[in-house]
Write a structure and sequence with these properties.
single chain; about 290 residues; alpha+beta; 2 domains; two-stranded antiparallel ribbon; 9 helices; 9 strands; globular
Length: about 290
């Protein structure tokens, strides 16, 4: 990676800000949250955890050669958000050498695609078809538009490829706020997002509050009845059993996204096991 190349990322959630907010807080990262069209919201990272140091070039954050790659960081975030929700999360990322996306949806294996800086495709064509299927895109027209992004085009660089991807998503309601352009450095993205009237900062409020938020989300939805009984307890136990090794695996690789994916699983599992007792005691005491 070019050490003087600006890096950046966006997280697109197929959910309204009210729905995305509780799960986004569990990432424990500084982010701005804003609506991004009908049924979409966008998270703009304020920090740059893919940088090992504090280097800047012309006032903009730049990649540190000793840092974790941006695609791995935001891919972990997307996975964590998707595991803790019922809606897909799309991470867009770029640095001086490459650009691409990672789409996470529930417990399914994330799918992604990569372009080199000059726009040369460097991914599997099948990824685009899986991408379209998981987002409910048109299997003919939209897939044709996506597959065009996987063909060589000397006039189209990686930044233009990401814009082409976003153009397809406008057909299912995505509309990014002004100033969010793929390829811009993180500092410029957050500076622009900070002035949006509907933007809000995501703040971590502690694990106790996180469990309370999860409990209230269940109570206000139709999921409550499905979280009771032997089958629900078995699922909750499986979530607890899976969450710990995932979190340990992420910690061993210093990947915050996977750490919190594991933590989210453990929260959901603990909440599932405790739901009957908590509800019997009253919804005000998670």
């Amino acid at each position: 990676m070019n050490a003087t190349s600006p890096v950046g990322a966006l997280l697109l959630c197929r959910a309204t800000p009210d729905t995305a907010r509780p799960v986004a807080r569990l990432l424990r990262e500084r982010m701005l949250l804003a609506p991004a069209g009908e049924g979409w919201s966008v998270l703009v990272p304020e920090g740059t955890p893919w940088q090992g140091g504090q280097g800047e070039q012309g006032g903009a954050p730049v990649a540190d050669e000793g840092a974790e790659p941006v695609d791995r960081v935001v891919g972990g975030w997307a996975t964590a958000l998707a595991v803790g929700s019922t809606w897909p999360v799309l991470a867009l990322w770029w640095d001086g050498d490459r650009a691409g996306y990672t789409l996470a949806a529930g417990f399914r294996r994330p799918v992604g695609y990569v372009w080199l800086a000059d726009g040369t495709p460097a991914g599997e064509d099948e990824a685009m078809r899986t991408f379209a299927e998981r987002l409910g895109l048109d299997p003919v027209l939209d897939v044709q538009a996506l597959e065009a992004l996987t063909r060589p085009d000397p006039e189209t660089d990686a930044r233009a490829r990401l814009r082409g991807l976003l153009a397809v998503l406008t057909r299912i309601g995505l509309e990014l706020p002004p100033g969010l352009e793929p390829g811009e450095p993180s500092g410029r993205l957050t500076a622009g997002a900070d002035v949006w009237p509907e933007a809000e900062r995501i703040a971590w409020t502690g694990w106790r509050e996180a469990v309370k938020v999860e409990f209230e989300a269940v109570e206000s939805s139709r999921m409550g009845p499905w979280m009771r009984g032997p089958r629900a307890r078995a699922l909750a136990g499986a979530q607890l059993a899976a969450g710990l090794p995932i979190a340990v695996w992420g910690a061993g690789r210093r990947n915050g996204g996977w750490v919190f994916a594991g933590a989210l699983l453990m929260i959901h599992g603990a909440l599932g096991l405790a739901y009957d007792r908590i509800r019997d005691e009253g919804p005000g005491r998670p």
